[in-house]
């Protein structure tokens, strides 16, 4: 369902991923109990950011180095985790979107790790993380026109050659984003820093616990 191409592993041998496959989900507006937990997490993390900016966090710094290594300026293109933390630090709030997105964002800000929640109905088969050739197709959120990733950037690609995410964990495609109709999803949390194996495992464990609590009818693997 999710794998790294050998070339990516050779260049980034420290990458670690936690993967959850969930079926039988019911997405939609975030329930009050989850929303309250999300708001509490936002306040706790915002308080920490007042003394420790995102770029100073080891997990975020590691993603910055990875982005720079494949040619993406880390001050122009930020990992999903850094983008969330910067928004939280500046605005003090991350708006609610839906149950699955909020759940992923909650874990992302708490652990300072990117969490991708992929609607399996929007992709063709397994996802491979590999270097782009430039022949893939990527449709940004809010756009109808696909574009080609830059050759050499890291992308999530399905069996049809459609890029589900560009610049590794910078942005997901419109097709792979969750929506109210999402019933089956792939959740991926990744890390590259020293201690990533431990931190990714803890984040995955929290994702599973939250899904069990707020999606009791779902089947998890």
Task: Summarize the structure in words.
- A five-stranded mixed beta sheet has the order 1-4-5-6-7. Strands 3-8-2-9 form a four-stranded antiparallel beta sheet.
- The protein contains six helices and nine strands.
- The mean pLDDT is 97.
- Helices cover 36% and strands 18% of the residues.
- It has 221 residues and is α+β, with helices and mostly antiparallel strands.
- The radius of gyration is 16 Å and the shape is globular.
Proportion in helices: 25-40%
Number of contiguous helices: 6
- Number of extended strands: 9
- Biggest sheet features: 5 strands, mixed
> Which strand order spans the largest sheet, edge to edge or round the barrel?
1-4-5-6-7
Mean pLDDT figure: 97
Poorly predicted tracts of residues = none
- Find the structural class using helix and strand composition: alpha+beta
What amount of the residues lies in strands? 15-25%
The CA-CA distance between the termini, in Å, is 11 Å
Element-by-element helix/strand order:
EHEHHHHEEEEEEHE
Taking all Cα atoms into account, the compactness measure Rg is: 16 Å
Q: How would you describe the shape? A: globular
Provide the descriptors you would attach to this structure in a database record.
9 strands; 221 residues; 36% helix; five-stranded mixed β-sheet; globular; alpha+beta; single chain
Write the layout of secondary structure elements.
Elements: E1 2-4, H1 6-11, E2 16-23, H2 32-49, H3 58-69, H4 80-91, H5 99-111, E3 115-119, E4 127-131, E5 154-157, E6 163-166, E7 171-172, E8 185-191, H6 196-214, E9 219-220
Parallel strand pairs: 1-4
Antiparallel strand pairs: 2-8, 2-9, 3-8, 4-5, 5-6, 6-7
Helix pairs in contact: 2-5, 5-6
